[in-house]
Amino acid sequence: MPVLKETAVAFEAMSDLPFGEAVERCRQALASEGFGVLTEIDVQATLKRKLDVDREPYTILGACHPPSAHRALTASLRPRSVCCCRATSACPSRGARPWFGR
After folding, report:
1. What is the pLDDT along the chain (102 residues), one digit of tens a residue?
2. Contact at 8 Å (CB) between 62 and 86?
3. 7 — phi, psi (to 5°)?
4. Contacts 24+ apart (CB under 8 A), 71-78
5. Residues 68, 72, 78, 82: is their CA dihedral positive or negative?
6. Are the C-beta atoms of residues 6 and 86 closer than 8 Å to each other?
7. 55 with 92: CB under 8 angstroms?
8. Topology classification of domain 34-89
């Protein structure tokens, strides 16, 4: 099990898992905490299509915790900054790196 490291803006863990498996583990970890994945952005494919740039695999999962989103929307009609959670996975040369924004 990778060690979770807290940074100023995220929680980060390195993994030796293949990229696709690391993304799936991110999904499972989010689901186990009550988050649902609303959006998925394949950054690698998007940059290739838009800019013809080759990059390592990089995926952004836009996740939502419905009870928290509901509380935020009930408290204020401007909860934009608290309703968004991102989980990204990048595949640098030394392994997959799940990253959970906060």
Report:
1. 567 778 787 777 788 888 888 889 888 988 999 989 888 999 999 999 999 999 988 888 888 888 888 887 788 766 555 555 666 666 655 555 555 554
2. yes
3. -110, -175
4. none
5. negative
6. no
7. no
8. TATA-Binding Protein (3.30.310)
- The owner of tokens 């408290």 is 75
Q: State the pLDDT at residue 19.
A: 86
Strand ranges (E), the chain: 5-6, 10-12, 36-42, 58-64, 85-90, 97-101
Amino acid at 36: G
- Cα–Cα nearest to 57, from 16, 19, 102, 15: 19
The structural domains of the chain, with segments of one domain joined by +, span 34-89
Cα 5 to chain centroid distance, Å, stands at 15
Return contacts of 33-41, CB within 8 angstroms, 24+ apart. Answer: 33/65, 34/65, 34/66, 34/67, 35/63, 35/64, 35/65, 35/85, 36/63, 36/64, 36/66, 37/61, 37/62, 37/63, 37/87, 38/62, 38/63, 38/64
